Amino acid sequence: MTLPDRFQQADAVPDDLQQLEARLAEAEDILLRDSPQAEATAREVLAGATAAGCQSLALRSRTVLGRSLAHQKRNEQATELLESVVAESRSAKMPELLVHAWLGLGLAHLNERRMARGLQAYLEALKICESLNAPELSLRVLTNLASAYAKLEQYDTAQPYLTEAHDTARQLGQPFDLMITSLNLACVCQLSGGTGAALTLIEEALRHAKTVASPRYLKSVLFHFSQLLLDLDRLSEALTYCEQGLNTDSGFGTATPQCELQVTHGEILYGLGRPAEARPALEAGLRAAQDLRLNDAEGRARRCYAQLLEDQDDYQGALAQVRALAQLEHDLREQLAAVNLQLEAERLRSETLAEKRRLKEEGRTQQRLAAQLRHDALTGLPNRLALHEALGQQVAADSAPFALLCLDLDHFKTVNHTLGQPAGDALLLYIGERVQAAVGEQGQTFRRGGNEFVVLLPAVRAAPDALTIAQTLLDTINEPLLLDGQALVVTASIGLALFPEDGRDSLTLQKNADLALHAAKQEGGQAQRYRNALSQAANERLELTQALRSGIGNGELVLHYQPIVEVRSGKTVAVEALVRWQHPRLGLLSPDRFIGLAEDNGLIVPLGRWVLNTALRQLAAWREHWPELRVSVNMAPRQLQQPGSCQEIRDALRAYALPPDALELEITEQTICDEEALEPFLPLIREGLRLAIDDFGTGYSSLSRLYRLPAQILKLDRSLIQDLSADNATDGPLVSALIAFAQRFGMQVTAEGIETAEQLHLLRQ
Prior knowledge:
Blueprint: H1 15-30, H2 35-52, H3 55-71, H4 75-91, H5 95-111, H6 115-129, H7 135-151, H8 155-172, H9 175-191, H10 195-212, H11 215-231, H12 235-247, H13 255-271, H14 275-292, H15 295-311, H16 315-373, H17 384-397, E1 402-409, H18 412-419, H19 421-439, E2 444-449, E3 452-457, H20 463-478, E4 481-483, E5 486-488, E6 492-499, H21 506-522, E7 526-529, H22 532-553, E8 557-565, E9 572-583, E10 587-589, H23 591-600, H24 604-622, E11 630-634, H25 637-641, H26 645-655, E12 663-667, H27 669-672, H28 682-686, E13 690-696, H29 703-706, E14 713-716, H30 718-721, H31 731-744, E15 748-751, H32 757-764
Parallel strand pairs: 6-7, 9-11, 11-12, 12-13, 13-14, 14-15
Antiparallel strand pairs: 1-3, 1-6, 2-3, 4-5, 8-9, 9-10
């Protein structure tokens, strides 16, 4: 049993409240078997909970009280109490309690023949149950809902609910639930003509009824059993079970099944040809049915009684019974028609309300979507669309100068690769909050996408003021933060453009701010203002990109080969293929002039394909003289991630009749953070292909990841080698440690840029 909410965090629960909890559990347990006693216990608990100020326990006790009143057909009191419980349970977000309240309300409405409202209450309860993992509660709702449909003679609708309830009861293994569901399903099967299935289910219900030991339910099961046997013309058996039911002890709730048993007793005795005994049984049953307003039992009693009187030549009495029966059936038809009209009206009303709710929700949804359309899902900041609209309005509304800052986080991909995307998202949230707080009322902050933010400063008129704000933003961003348990210092770059000097429309202004941002990043961060030379450089970059696109296919690329020499033997064991661009106007260009362009514009894939095939073709020719020679080829991250890249390498090796161990692939430190990209290459690596980690020592490699990779070679960047000397107390130990690390995990080490004999000597040591 769940303890009251006010004591859930306490070390101990007061004894008196524990006792009240236990008493309420007793009331819930006997609710269906002895509603008057459940009512008395619930009132006792309610008084105690109210005095103790425990609201949740008081609300639960009111729910049990309301349901007990409904079971006693004190419907007005039950309805008033349970409607208040529904409102409070919904407000307190107590869904299970809300289901119990709807169940009680549904019963009270059905007792008053308010069928539509009763069904609606049960359907509300079922809707809540669908979101809860509470099979026992769902079982109660399904059973009650099916019973309501059965009373409306909508057996096809009732049966699926009952079948699901019966299956759930079997899973739970509770005798009481199995008895109720078996009995209800048997009744529906019997009324639908499935007497064989009904008989099996009734026998199952009887077994469980004897276990439950409730006179009310035992009488009810025995009545239905005897009725079914009567329909099957098994009169002797029917009489046995009917008399068992009549002789079962009475108690709370037994009046209805006792009345039905009396009528059935008379029907069986009449069928057995014992009219003298049947007549008093039918008369007693008829009186009880009229008192209890049991229309079905009254109809059966009058029908059988009329036949009996006719057999005894009492035609006047038989006619009176037939007339009363006709009036009763007429009233029942009218009642059923009225109920169906009520249900149809309720359905139409519900559809109208649902349509109104749908339209209202649709309006709210459109507003929400409009807001989402203009806001970033992660940070909640206005997005690119909102930026475009705000800039357009600012340009159109005011000719006075204003400033635009474009901000980009440095090395953000490294955070994603090393700490994971959730950490990257958390970092963006931190930065967004910091930037927004630093800008304050001076302007508006936008997230344009990725790790880019934009700040609009409507009231800033001069570049020095904008640069001051930019520096404040950089200082704010640079403050250390704790991310995923690690202290992290983040840097950023900012590009600045002023309206109208640096652009008279929003697109030009953003473009020029981006150019300033690019210049700031190239110069190592900080803030830069746009200048005309940046546009010229951008145009040159665009022209160079277009020239490279055509140059790849026009044979303008060439390969130079740098030997890789074994330190101890001095033997050349491999060559590294280095691409150069023979530009028709600018001459021979080194990779730093065009590789970045190729990576930014997707040209790195066709460029890399050309390098691979050209290098392998040259190696095949050289291997005729040096059969052990290998070639080393650089692979950019985008190449590795390209679908089918592994198959392309395999096809190229096959085309030049080369084994996989003739090729080394050089990958960057960034790539080792993307272990999934290397998975397709594992079969080739097992066949001899070698992986080399290029330029190690310049990035942000994780040594813990490095040793898990299938790499055989570690290439130390030339920056670690160029200052290597006996007098350098820093680089020497670092290089030694990296070599020891690599060798510890069976990796070879290649040092780039050995230019002096001293460097070679130290590396040999």
